[in-house]
Specification:
The chain is an alpha+beta fold and 150 residues long. It is 31% helix and 9% strand. The chain has five helices and four strands, in the order H-E-E-E-E-H-H-H-H. The strands form two sheets. The protein has a two-stranded antiparallel ribbon with strand order 1-2. A two-stranded parallel ribbon has the order 3-4. The longest helix is centred in the N-terminal third of the chain and has 14 residues. The protein is globular and about 55 Å long.
Length: 150
């Protein structure tokens, strides 16, 4: 564990992420000798970074969990109005938005972060094609673009 990496100083973390993404290529379903490993496209799986979604959620579309929420006050005061609601698992409806709203918010984020998302609408993982409906698929094992393989 590198204790110099904190939520305030993420340069080392982002350098690691960039290097890893360059090494493995776009999200895909990898076929391995004894099984498989699937890396899903960002914002298209059960957990997404809550900060990029304004800590909002939808009961109808998108992720069911927010990763990156580090403070229990966010859970107790934002996602649930009270400790009583938390114990009964009654979410704060004020943090909930419609499927269309969360899709629009996610598309806006994807268009803003051009280095993280394929732009356009013609490729299988292009933001304008699938991000708004949370339906971007992982590429197949042999689908282009392929990363360097030894």
């Amino acid at each position: 564990l590198d204790r110099s990496v904190t939520t305030m100083h993420l340069d080392k973390y982002w350098n690691f992420v960039k290097c890893t993404k360059e090494a493995i290529g776009p999200p895909r379903a990898w076929r391995l000798p004894n099984g498989s490993l699937t890396v899903w496209p960002m914002m298209n799986f059960w957990s997404s970074d809550g900060m990029y979604l304004g800590k909002q959620y939808s009961d109808f579309a998108g992720p069911v969990m927010h990763h990156g929420i580090k403070d229990d006050k966010d859970v107790r005061g934002h996602y649930f109005k009270s400790d009583k609601d938390l114990k009964k698992c009654i979410p704060n409806k004020e943090a909930m938005i419609s499927a269309q709203e969360i899709g629009t918010k996610t598309l806006g984020m994807a268009l803003h972060f051009k280095e993280w998302f394929n732009q356009g609408a013609s490729c299988r993982q292009c933001a304008r094609r699938c991000i708004q409906s949370f339906s971007c698929p992982p590429l197949g094992n042999e689908e282009s673009p392929l990363p360097h393989r030894k």
